[in-house]
Design goal:
Three copies of one chain form a homotrimer. The first copy, chain A, is α/β, with parallel strands linked by helices. The first copy, chain A, has two domains: 7-155, S-adenosyl-l-methionine hydroxide adenosyltransferase, N-terminal (Rossmann fold, 3-Layer(aba) Sandwich), CATH 3.40.50; 166-270, Elongation Factor Tu (Ef-tu), domain 3 (Beta Barrel). Chain A has six helices and 16 strands. Chain A has helices spanning 20-31, 49-60, 102-105, 131-144, 246-250, 265-270, and strands at residues 7-12, 36-41, 68-72, 83-88, 92-96, 110-115, 154-155, 166-167, 175-183, 189-194, 203-207, 210-212, 215-216, 228-231, 236-240, 257-262. In chain A, strands 8, 9, 10, 11, 12, 13, 14, 15 and 16 form a nine-stranded mixed beta sheet that branches. A seven-stranded mixed beta sheet of chain A has the order 2-1-3-5-4-6-7. In chain A, a hairpin with a 2-residue loop joins strand 11 (203-207) and strand 12 (210-212). Chain A is elongated. The termini of chain A are far apart. Chains B and C meet through helix 1 of B and strand 1, strand 2 and helix 2 of C.
């Protein structure tokens, strides 16, 4: 029997206006009153897999080892899409087979994958529209009590969706194509371009028809009201405006293309 | 002395922009540090009793036995409206006397009702505008420590508001009048029509000037962009659009009338 | 070594759409699995110090003694602004040095202030944009385990920002200048004018070009649709409309001036 791990983290697009999240917690505590539930976010945009995958990737490594992540952005609920239980060295993920785990899997090794789409041992009926309540929550609760995934499903053969973030190496490649994967509450536009810790050399960043040419270390550094780029707290290139919303200023949307061109230092220095 | 039950579930219309919910939790933990608080939802639309009653009904049965529900959608705060402590076999509910419990009471037996509007034993002053902090939270905390409702109030004579959901029986009645009782985050329109588990025979569902004639098992089943009906996770008739908001498409509002007409099978089959 | 205090309360402007709050909780539980985290609010308006200071002041006194408050409305993150650990008789506050604590400090005595801007003992790198994750959360977790603030920083010399709420004394002063410091979910406009428990004598309250002349004890008392004032649950003057949004009706904004003129009783009584 696996080790008990009381922490269950929830990431969904269920929002706060419904009782869906509360119901899942009720189910979990009914099965394992010792569980400890942490909300990652429930405001992931409905059915936006890239964003959900980003939120999960940005968060999971900060959780206690052993945490069971329940990840539900699931437009395919009720259809033939599968539900996987994916184990890594430190964590367990319950996810629909739709790519929510793709950025996590780009940087961590998988130890086991189980198809838990139809965990036969549950006695209650499974609805066609709320697997969060009827499959994910009871599964998470029982895993948190130390039961093994093999009790609930078979090892899955399917290859999992993996997507690498785009690593920017100023000394190697001069042009990068990325995309908008998240817009945060402050209107900062988060991209899938992973920046080095050191400041970029001279560059041009293009978002639709906007050009950004200035990088700052933190938001309060710039007062001009110009668009700037920042290396965000997860290392990703963010487009930002001091005390304003870059998303509003640029009308950026999830999925939009972002291009980063590094300009030759030598040429500039000696021109 | 009653059994201790650490779980306290909160359902309010207090929203997230204020500290009201946080303050209630502070009060509860100050009295009972062992309490375990679960949020059902705090985004129930202000002062919409039908919706709050639906959210509570859809959720309560999934919570651990013994859970104490604190339900505050309470436009009458400070007035002469009463606060009741209602006990059923499995749960305790603290509610203003305004109908929030009406759908729950349509399906479960009441074991006891206490009028706890003015629990004299509290030493702190009671504000006229925040009974959540000054009455509900301390009451819930003390009940969770095993104190009995009779300590805080007298058995109430008042008859409680009960409302039955409208059960659809295709073999018995051919026409049903219902109403919109909730619109969820995805724009699904939830009605008070309780569907049977088996698929409906041929039907016509009317919402204002819109007619819906197709039923699906789950949201992803239909790709047409037409309005469809789904038997939601609580068994209620929901009006939906695949990958869109049915509420936006129909401009549906809480309280709006919904009519379901079942069409004779025989006639259709042999016409 | 200080006493262990499991309760950590979070007040931020991080919102719910991002994983920022979830990440902070992950960090805290990773360090102290016994911690118990309470959300005060995460929807404080971005970068509105007055509002955050009000929310904190309205809430803190209802939390268990020993609670550690983590307060992050922090437009200056990454700049040279300091982070303070402020101790009072009952509580510990981790705050940027930007005034979030000003209303609390107007009514409670400070026992100690430490500059914890650069807690050297942490081994992980500190990002320039997410001190919540990299400084506040680990600090709170370790304080909750009984470590002393002096482990993480030096006593600070800086004088802290203090702002008194404006106490209304009908027998002493006849005219008061206040401001809007919060607008709640129901559209109630909260000011920094602290009312006495007894009803005001005849008065005139001015908000921009609107005049309010009626006071009620609770929201449901008035049915007219007129603007009214209420002594809110924290004792502050609130401008309200029964079953409507006073903020929408008046287009009130945070920071707007509010004037309260008490009119001579004698004159009125005998005129």
């Amino acid at each position: 029997m696996a080790k008990k791990n009381p922490f269950i983290a929830l990431l969904t697009d269920f929002g706060a206006a419904d009782a869906y999240v509360g119901i899942m917690k009720g189910v979990i505590y009914s099965i394992n009153p010792q569980a400890r539930i942490i909300d990652v976010s429930h405001e992931s945009a409905p059915q936006q897999i890239d964003q959900a995958a980003f939120l999960l990737w940005s968060a999971y490594k900060y959780f206690p080892a052993g945490t069971i992540f329940v990840c539900i952005v699931d437009p395919g609920v009720g259809s033939l899409r599968k539900i996987f239980c994916v184990q890594t060295s430190n964590y367990t993920f319950l996810v629909p087979d739709n790519g929510m785990l793709k950025f996590v899997l780009g940087e961590t090794q998988v130890k086991g994958v189980y198809d838990v789409s139809k965990p036969k041992i549950f006695s209650h009926p499974v609805s066609a529209t709320f697997h969060g309540r009827d499959i994910f929550a009871p599964l998470a609760a029982r895993l948190s009590m130390g039961e093994k995934p093999s009790v609930f499903g078979r090892p899955a053969k399917a290859s999992l969706n993996v997507e690498l973030l785009v690593s920017v190496h100023p000394k190697r490649v001069m042009k990068y194509e990325g995309k908008v994967i998240h817009i945060d509450r402050f209107g900062n536009i988060v991209t899938n371009l992973l920046l080095p810790e050191s400041r970029l050399p001279k560059f041009r960043c293009l978002l639709e028809k906007k050009t950004i040419e200035q990088q700052v270390l933190y938001y309060a550094e710039n007062d001009s009201g110009d668009l700037i780029i920042v290396r965000g707290s997860s290392g990703l290139l963010e487009i930002s405006i001091r005390n304003g919303s870059a998303a509003t200023a640029t009308r950026a949307k999830l999925g939009q293309r972002v291009t980063l061109e590094l300009l030759s230092n030598e040429k500039d220095d000696h021109a």
